[in-house]
Amino acid sequence: MRITVSVDGTAYTDDVEPRLLLVHYLRDKLGKVGTVVGCDTSNCGACTVHVDGHSVKSCSMLAVQADGREVTTIEGLARDGKLHPVQQAFHDNHALQCGFCTPGMIMQAIDLLADHPDPDEETVRSGMEGNLCRCTGYQNIVRAVRDAAGRMRPGAGPEAER
Ligand code: FES
Ligand code: FES
């Protein structure tokens, strides 16, 4: 089937197998290897991207379902050489070790912060519960998300896009 998808601001038209998962389309066809596969069964969240501004586990969606839609991956966040505030907060709060979960964590956090601009710890923990990390114990991830919230609030600098 022929699909046209906007990915990180660029339109791509490709012929794909109907069974192709979005995550494999992004990685294998477009070379967007920042989106990673941790489980392939919708459990770990490592493959999280945004589709029309909302987080989606890209191993749970077919590429053909993205036809005509706007996909953002971790690789589309930095602008003009400047990290997205959530990326910067993860860096500054040491919210990663091996980094495997980090792309999905950051995409999920951005979606969470769009709905909860000033989340308490409980809101962060429950909003991020679909994203697993084997390394950090989550403490610094929670800290980073709340720190990012402060950076993204109006008056804290250029407000980040969803
Ligand atoms: Fe998609 Fe684990 S690879 S949820
Ligand atoms: Fe290693 Fe999260 S930093 S899985």
TrEMBL record:
Signal peptide: none annotated. It comes from the Bacteria. Transmembrane segments: none annotated. GO terms for molecular function: 2 iron, 2 sulfur cluster binding; metal ion binding; oxidoreductase activity. Gene3D superfamilies: 3.10.20.30, [2Fe-2S]-binding domain. Residues 1-77 form the 2Fe-2S ferredoxin-type domain. Pathway: Alkaloid degradation; nicotine degradation. Keywords: 2Fe-2S, Iron, Iron-sulfur, Metal-binding, Oxidoreductase. PANTHER family: OXIDOREDUCTASE WITH IRON-SULFUR SUBUNIT. This is Carbon-monoxide dehydrogenase small subunit.
